[in-house]
């Protein structure tokens, strides 16, 4: 059964049963009040006729011995309602009641309470009131009859009228409840439709949210979920494209040196070459082999960093760079580049080998960009330690700054290949910065060098 049908039926059942119960209680309450008023009237009539009977007994001690006809004439003339008079032994002296009462219901001589009973017979409803009456030496039981047929008839009319009203209201309630059920279900249908679109591959589907009820909160949560799914799908798609690009670039980077190696090796194998030609071919093979080695090592570093859990240790920055000079100096001497190191006191949390790889890659990129000078500076600012590597080389075009951390991306491909580059250096640096919990910003105008700033977060800093 659909939710709409459940809501509709629940509304109908709840509304119908509630209206019926309320109507029944109101009619019953009204009837009980009317019966109570009838009882009060019946008691008043009984008291009035009791006084009349007592006056008869007072004036005529032989009143109960009269012939029935004479007693009947006196009763008709003086009693206001039908009555029945009994001797103490329950023998009937006179009665003009429509219904003979049960004498067990009459009060006892020692009982001060007045007995009553509602009796319905022949389409007529009456209240019989009885009590023991004593006057001087005369003792009798008096029973009075008060007609309440009008009250019962009114009750029946009210019930009949309520049944008609009930049917009319239920019929009128059907379309109203139908509309309310549609309004309640409509937001859920929108959510279901949006979920169906997402299930079908349309991750841009969203729900228009209005109101502040639980369904609106559900719609907002659904939109947030859809947004998260869309972002995740986009992320996975980007990762898939990156993997495809990685595989394509990797194959391309392998193809060029392997082609050269195979070509020169084949030439050396099949042709008789002079010593100079053999040396030249061997030089090409060596150069391309070194390039393949660099590519393999950097790829290995990338894979290791993805699989390895590194432990960050607190290290003094000045001591760290004092050790790194042994690795920085040969790289700079090879290309005739001067380096300048100026570090403020402070400490950072990092892995030594990763940090060394990061700095050497940045220095290597700087010297290969034909830099004459490289400045390596450290500054402690408001609990953050900032390491800046600045050069005066060729720089990076501003429109390519966003891609230089991609694997195999090279700004100057021909120069990078001549220098055994594979476009993995900045990808390694970016990965190391991420592992160290730092952030990196690269600035360049494409003409006057490059400025790389690495900021180590406050919680990893311990200033002296």
What do you see in this structure?
- The chain is of the alpha+beta class.
- Among the domains are: 3-160, Beta-Lactamase, CATH 3.30.450; 309-460, 2-Layer Sandwich (Heat Shock Protein 90), CATH 3.30.565.
- The chain is built from nine helices and twelve strands.
- It has helices spanning 3-59, 68-78, 149-199, 214-270, 275-307, 317-335, 352-368, 413-418, 425-435, and strands spanning 83-86, 92-95, 115-121, 124-135, 138-147, 313-316, 338-343, 347-350, 373-381, 384-391, 439-444, 450-456.
- The protein has a five-stranded antiparallel β-sheet with strand order 2-1-5-4-3, covered by helices on one side. Strands 7-9-10-12-11 form a five-stranded mixed β-sheet, covered by helices on one side.
- A hairpin with a 2-residue loop joins strand 4 and strand 5 (138-147).
- Helix 1 runs antiparallel to helix 3 (149-199) and helix 4 (214-270) packs antiparallel against helix 5 (275-307).
- The longest helix is centred in the first third of the chain and has 57 residues, at 3-59.
- The two termini are 72 Å apart.
- Residues 413-422 have low confidence and may be disordered.
Biggest β-sheet: strands ordered side by side in the sheet? 2-1-5-4-3
**Secondary structure tally, helices:** 9
Oligomer: single chain
User: Share of helix among residues?
Assistant: 55-70%
| Unreliable parts | 413-422
**CATH structural class of the domain at 3-160:** Alpha Beta
Number of strands: 12
CATH architecture of the domain at 3-160: 2-Layer Sandwich
Using only C-alpha atoms, the radius of gyration works out to: 55 Å
The main pleated sheet reads as:
5 strands, antiparallel
Following the backbone from N to C, one meets helices and strands in this order, namely HHEEEEEHHHEHEEHEEHHEE
Mean pLDDT: 79
Termini Cα gap: 72 Å
Under CATH, the topology of the domain at 3-160 can be stated as Beta-Lactamase
| Main structural class | alpha+beta
Estimate the strand proportion.
15-25%
Shape: rod-shaped
């Amino acid at each position: 059964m659909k939710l709409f049908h459940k809501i509709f039926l629940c509304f109908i059942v709840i509304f119908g049963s509630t209206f019926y119960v309320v109507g029944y209680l109101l009619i019953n309450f009204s009837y009980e009040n009317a019966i109570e008023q009838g009882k009060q009237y019946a008691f008043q009539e009984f008291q009035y006729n009791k006084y009349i009977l007592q006056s008869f007994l007072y004036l005529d001690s032989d009143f109960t011995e009269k012939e029935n006809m004479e007693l009947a004439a006196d009763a008709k003339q003086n009693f206001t309602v039908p009555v029945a008079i009994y001797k103490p032994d329950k023998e009937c002296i006179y009665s003009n009641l429509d219904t003979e009462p049960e004498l067990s219901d009459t009060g006892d001589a020692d009982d001060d309470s007045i007995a009553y009973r509602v009796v319905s017979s022949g389409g007529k409803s009456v209240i019989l009131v009885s009590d023991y009456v004593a006057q001087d030496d005369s003792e009798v039981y008096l029973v009075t009859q008060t007609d309440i047929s009008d009250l019962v008839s009114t009750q029946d009319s009210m019930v009949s009228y309520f049944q008609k009203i009930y049917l009319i209201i239920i019929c009128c309630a059907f379309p109203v409840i139908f509309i309310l059920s549609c309004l309640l279900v409509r937001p859920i249908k929108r959510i279901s439709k949006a979920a169906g679109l997402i299930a079908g591959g349309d991750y841009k589907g969203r729900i228009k949210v209005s109101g502040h009820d639980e369904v609106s909160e559900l719609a907002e949560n659904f939109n947030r979920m859809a947004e998260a799914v869309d972002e995740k799908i986009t992320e996975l798609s980007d990762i898939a494209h990156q993997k495809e690009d990685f595989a394509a670039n990797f194959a391309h980077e392998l193809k060029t040196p392997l082609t050269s190696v195979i070509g020169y090796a084949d030439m050396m194998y099949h042709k008789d070459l002079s010593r100079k030609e053999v040396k030249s071919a061997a030089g090409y093979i060596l150069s391309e082999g070194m390039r393949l080695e660099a590519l393999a090592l950097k790829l290995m570093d990338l894979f290791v960093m993805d699989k390895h859990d590194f432990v960050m240790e607190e290290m003094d920055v000045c001591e760290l760079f004092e050790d790194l000079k042994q690795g920085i100096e040969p790289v700079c001497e090879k290309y005739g580049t001067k380096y300048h190191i100026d570090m403020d006191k402070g400490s950072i949390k990092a892995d030594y080998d990763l940090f060394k790889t990061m700095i050497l890659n940045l220095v290597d990129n700087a010297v290969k960009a034909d830099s004459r000078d490289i400045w390596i500076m450290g500054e402690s600012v408001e609990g953050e330690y900032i390491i800046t590597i600045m050069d005066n080389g060729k720089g990076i075009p501003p429109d390519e700054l966003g891609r230089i951390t991609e694997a195999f991306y090279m700004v100057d491909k021909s120069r990078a290949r001549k220098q055994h580059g594979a476009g993995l250096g900045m990808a390694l640096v970016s990965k190391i910065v991420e592992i160290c919990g730092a952030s990196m910003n690269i600035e360049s105008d494409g003409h006057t060098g490059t400025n790389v700033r690495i900021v180590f977060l406050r919680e990893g800093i311990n200033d002296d």
